[in-house]
Amino acid sequence: MLSKFRILASLVTGLGVALIVGGLIAPRFLLGDARLPLDLEHTTWTIEDPAGQARGETKPVTRQLHMEIQDPSGPDIASVRVGESILAGSSPNDFDNLVSAGTWTYPMDRKSGAPTQPMEFSSVMVMPPTRVQSDAPWLKFPADVHNTTYDVFDPTLRAAAPAEFVGEGEIAGRTVYRFEQVVEPTNLARAYADPRNTKTQVDAEGNQTRSFLFYSARRELTVDQATGLVVGINEDVDTYYADDGGRRVEDVLRYEGKMDERRSEEMAGQLSTVLSAAQSRAVTYAVIALGVLLVALGLFGALRGQRAR
Fold first, then answer.
1. pLDDT of the chain, 309 residues: tens digit per residue
2. Nearest one of 228, 43, 253, 80 to 145, comparing CA atoms
3. Cα 221 from Cα 232, distance rounded (Å)
4. Superkingdom, according to UniProt (predicted)?
5. What are phi and psi of 175, to 5 degrees?
6. Model pTM?
């Protein structure tokens, strides 16, 4: 009959073998490379300025982005739909406050955040849908974010603009990187076709001149370092009509919007179980090392028990 000592040694050895096997096969089944999770709960970015400017009048301005992950989505690609709206005003009826609204749909690489096919933009004001070619990330940077400069998609430009690393911080126990994206005043009529990008101005004498929609922005993006998910957006935006030389002739929309810190904490907090590739490797190696140690102790105990007999 086996002694209690040898039974304990066998149990320790078995546990060690189980840990080694688990450590070896776990990377095949666990989300250990910080790719975009498919079950995110908090995916709404709300940027508000209670004293913005719309058509020259002071009004509360709200810009909102809401991302949905739809089918089909798989291990490498997620089907993404992003709704974007801008409201200006305090009417209880949101439709009365609506400045613009539209949706972006595209397949996203879950690691890099980049579209894998042309993005499609649909707007209640522009029909039919427009296809936009871009390989730049938008609301999700590449996993394992570095302190460097990234080209980041701007939906108003319908193109990418550089976002420069400016600092590091922590939100909800997660390391976050902050980036600043600056868009110099840009004539949107020269960037892409849209009925709103040009306008005819009429002066007091009835003379007509053509003006163009200009856009500029200074944006702070707060990004979860491991996953690359954007968890905060603050932005100063100015859109206006100007003449050929860029001289402002009519204000359209101007605001200095900020995102509530509690929303950023919710967005970062939901990522608490997502590991970076480096963290995943460290956990795997630690589990395997513990398994090897237990196997060694178990075998040593079993051999010692035999010698004792």
1. 446 555 565 564 565 455 455 545 555 445 456 789 999 999 999 999 999 999 999 999 999 999 999 999 999 999 999 999 999 999 999 889 999 999 999 999 999 999 999 999 998 765 688 999 999 999 999 999 999 999 999 999 999 999 999 999 999 999 999 999 999 999 999 999 998 999 988 877 778 889 999 999 999 999 999 999 999 999 999 999 999 889 999 999 999 999 999 999 999 999 988 765 455 445 454 555 554 554 455 455 555 555 555
2. 228
3. 6
4. Bacteria
5. -75, 130
6. 0.81
